[in-house]
UniProtKB/TrEMBL annotation:
Keywords carried by this UniProt record: Acute phase, Calcium, Disulfide bond, Metal-binding, Secreted, Signal
CDD domains: PTX
Calcium recorded as keyword: yes
Protein name (Swiss-Prot/TrEMBL): Pentraxin family member
Organism of provenance: Athene cunicularia
Cofactor(s) it depends on: Ca(2+)
Disulfide bonds: 56-115
GO annotation terms (biological process): acute-phase response; innate immune response
Main location: secreted
InterPro entries: ConA-like_dom_sf, Pentaxin_CS, Pentraxin_domain, PTX_dom
PROSITE patterns: PTX_1, PTX_2
Subunit note: Homopentamer. Pentaxin (or pentraxin) have a discoid arrangement of 5 non-covalently bound subunits.
Domain Pentraxin (PTX): 25-222
GO molecular function: complement component C1q complex binding; metal ion binding
């Protein structure tokens, strides 16, 4: 990571603020409070329905209750894609409203990087925790993920673009969010961990269109 010294930090007002990140070296969204509406809305989406995809992100939190990290909802299905942590040491990965569970080591307040991939033709789900692949599982073989989506970070959508529950909201740091319309390898997962992906994503952390809604902090430095 580039840059030295103390990074700049500035709070966003309650009114939504909209930005497009350029080629930055370090960028993190900080969710300092438990709220019913604070979230990041991703201003990008697939151009067509998905038969394959991968989502990666990094989080840092001391929450022990359930919370949502990545929520991709369509008008037909609010849990079209969802990365959800119901309790310490467990992740749920949803596709089309159904999920598989991955159990991971319980850390003492440490940053966690996860990636999840899905392939429609086989239903195979891949999952990586801090760069290490977990045993594959099966989910929703033959399903197609809709392209007209609302993509939200830090809240779970129970309705298209809303229906948030404060008891499922995220608090902590969220960064390194990527989505590809394909599967990726373990070496490519490692590249994403260090924000140097070789494959072009649908959206990625070094060129990330987004809208901040309600009260968050954003840290950026080069």
């Amino acid at each position: 990571m580039g840059g030295t010294g103390t990074p700049p930090a500035w709070p966003f007002p309650l009114a939504a603020a909209e930005k497009l990140t350029a080629q930055i070296q370090y960028h993190v969204f900080v969710y300092p409070h438990e709220t019913k509406n604070s979230h990041v809305l991703v201003r990008a989406k697939p151009e067509q329905p998905l038969q394959n995809f991968t989502v990666c992100l990094q989080s840092y939190t001391d929450l022990t209750r359930p919370y949502s990290l990545f929520s991709y909802a369509t008008k037909a299905q609010d849990n079209e894609i969802l990365l959800f942590k119901p309790k310490p040491g467990e992740y749920r990965f949803y596709v089309g409203g159904k999920f598989v569970t991955f159990r991971v080591p319980q850390s003492i307040v440490a940053s966690e990087h996860i990636c999840a991939s899905w392939e429609s033709a086989t239903g195979i789900v891949g999952f990586w925790f801090n760069g290490k692949p977990w045993p594959r599982k099966g989910l929703q073989r033959g399903y197609t993920v809709g392209a007209e989506a609302a993509i939200v970070l830090g809240q779970e959508q129970d309705a298209f673009g809303g229906g948030f529950d404060i008891q499922q909201s995220f608090t902590g740091d969220l960064s390194a969010v990527y989505m590809w319309g394909m599967g990726i390898s373990t070496s490519e997962v490692m590249e994403a961990m260090y924000n140097r992906p070789s494959k072009a994503p649908i959206f990625g952390w070094r060129n990330f269109p987004y809208k901040i809604v309600a009260w968050l902090r954003e840290l950026i430095w080069a």
